[in-house]
Amino acid sequence: MKLAAEPTTNTLPKLLRRNAASFGRLPGMREKDRGIWQSYTWRACQDHVRALALGLAAHGFKRGDKLSVLGDNRARLYWAQLATQALGGMSVPLYQDSIASELLHVLTHAEVSVVVAEDQEQVDKVLSLRAELPSLRLLIYEDPRGMSAYREAILKSFTDIEAAGRAFDAEHAGYYERELEKGRAEDVALIAYTSGTTGRSKGVLLSHANMIVTSESFTTVEAVNRGDNWLCYLPMGWVGDSMFSLSTSLVVGATCNCPESPETVQRDLRELGPSALLAPPRIWENMLTGLQVKTADASWLKRRVYEFFRRAAERRELLKGDGKPVPLGTRIACRLGEFFVYGPVRDQLGLRNARWCLTGGAPLGADTFRFFRSFGINLKQIYGATEASALVSLQNDEEADPNTVGRTLPGTEVRIGERGEVLVKGPGVFLGYYKQEEATREALTADGWLKTGDAGLIDPRGHLAIIDRAKDVGKLADGTPFAPQFIENKLKYSPYIREAVAFGDQHPFVAAMVAIDMSTVGKWAEQRSLPYTSFMDLAAKPEVARLVIEEVGKINATLPGTTKVARIVLLNKELDADDAEMTRTRKVRRAFVAEKYAPVIAALYSGAKDARLTMDITFEDGRKSSLTSTLTIHDIAPSGGSRQLAA
To answer: Whole-number mean pLDDT of the chain?
Structure first.
């Protein structure tokens, strides 16, 4: 809170100036290019931001204008946001994998005048929409490869803009410094668009104070040190990246490290060995799946050794969670396991130096959470919302619990409202939705509390527990409480299941649509000489159905009573953000999925053996195609087998 109140450090660009002056020779950012880590000191970062800001000013950028960045995590894209904010503008980060219609919505709604694109691919996306973007005046590219033949007047290279900035500086001495000083804590720093689980994404207005105070609160409860190395790989369009990679790194002086590409993240993670890691549940689930696959491929002896020590670690973690003493034999086994299994696994994952790891953005299954904790990874859950500057609560080291999201940040309050909805008040709560006053009023209670839309409770220890989205929590026909995310996370613990959507509200039993994990199921099929040509072909194999049914049976054994999954259908395609079935942060858009797959859901509850479905498929370039297919429905026997397959 102190930094936000100080006029010399009350905006993000002013924090950069402080860092450059106070410890300018330390690395502020690194990025990997062609296999080599390029390092930029805090002073160099400040120089680039200053030159870019002046270059934008030379091209007419003024206070209140908006600039979007589009691409993978690159130092220049972070600098572009800071340069924008230094001039009193607002940054509007975009998801790099957005299709044309999604980009068009954000760019037109936010009235973006400048886009900084990473490379030729992203430039082409924007140019394809140029006729529909009346506000766009300037398109800047960061990577010059493939751009030499382009002649569009609005197109400029990053180096051209910096050169223009240096020339502008020679004629307008002190311009940057004067504009920087005009910045106030309450100015809008960022328009962060929501993931859009319930409809069109909305532009959340976050001030410098929102971001800085939230970061400061975070650093009072978590061990964050100057010079810490963080891997900045999460989508720049997600508010969590703005909070941790930009705001918090500026507050504490941590070093942001940008991987070479999304494909090299795991390799770069192992090479860097960061001090901490923030990852959404999908990343942790993928890590676990990779370990499970490697274990299955190992020799008999290695599998036995791994399983012995894994079970010992699991026993220890469960006993610690229950507050019970750990027997001597288990303690000895875990000490040996540290040498033979746990340490090597952490090293393989790139987490050998990580003091803490966080997961957030969506619930992480308890089994997955306990697995990483048991292997010595200090994994903790956080909870937040775009409208609350990404962070509301987090767990401390001693109270990590798969069933809660910890205590609220200092200065932030939480209460439980009607129908169990979590309400939040604090310095991180947003200023409102951009150009949507009615939606802003609907998001806040009469006394100013933010309605998160999540159902939760506060346990006797004062920890917040999130049950599910409030609108998704329901009851089975017999009155049994039904929270679909709980069941879905259980199902996704299987390495063969990538995604699942559970149904059950007002129905007599739980049913689920399951999308297989193409890589692990494909490898399983190859080991058994089972030929296939595509995802659709593989998912339709009876052998694959038996595999998944067996996995669901194992999971059912851990589910209570009537919440066991009774019927499933294997989808013939992955749930895809391009088809609007998921958000860019990998959250299921339940209302849309329920409408799109209505014939399948009806068949699941009518007792039918199959369902015929016609749907539109969207390609990356925005083209659409129609797909008609018949999906087989399987009954899960109490023993875990399939009555239909057995018949």
So the answer is: 92
The two three-digit tokens of residue 94, written as one number: 């975009």
Tokens of 588: 């299921």
- What is the model's pTM? 0.89
Q: How far is CA 383 from CA 138, 201, 205, 211, 544, in A?
A: 37, 20, 19, 16, 36
Q: Write out the residue limits of the CATH 3.30.300.30 domain(s) in the chain.
A: 474-646
Token pair listed for 150: 């382009």
Tracing tokens 């993000």 back to the chain, one arrives at 12
Q: Which pLDDT value is given to residue 509?
A: 95
Tell me yes or no: is domain 281-352+354-469 CATH 3.40.50.12780.
Answer: yes
Whole-angstrom Cα distance, residue 164 to residue 186? 30
The pLDDT, as a whole number, for residue 615 is: 78
List, in sequence order, the alpha helices (H) in 445-541. Answer: 484-491, 518-527, 535-539
Give the tens place of pLDDT for each residue, 80-101. 999 999 999 999 999 999 888 8
Compute the distance between CA of residue 135 and CA of residue 112 in angstroms, rounded to an integer.
6
Going from the C-alpha of 282 to that of each of 206, 386, 472, 580, 592, the distances in angstroms are 26, 19, 20, 18, 21
493: how many CB neighbours lie within 10 A of its CB?
20
Q: Assess contact for 450 and 423: CB atoms under 8 A.
A: yes
Query: Please, where in the chain does CATH 3.40.50.12780 lie?
Result: 2-207, 281-352+354-469
pLDDT value at residue 270: 93
Top pLDDT among 46 and 495 is at: 46
For residues 186 and 7, is the Cβ–Cβ distance under 8 A? no
- pLDDT above 60 for 584: yes
The verdict on domain 2-207 having CATH code 3.40.50.12780 is yes
Of 237, 229, 215, 231, nearest to 409 by C-alpha is 215
Residues 224-237 have pLDDT tens digits of 999 999 999 999 99
- CATH number for the domain running over 474-646: 3.30.300.30
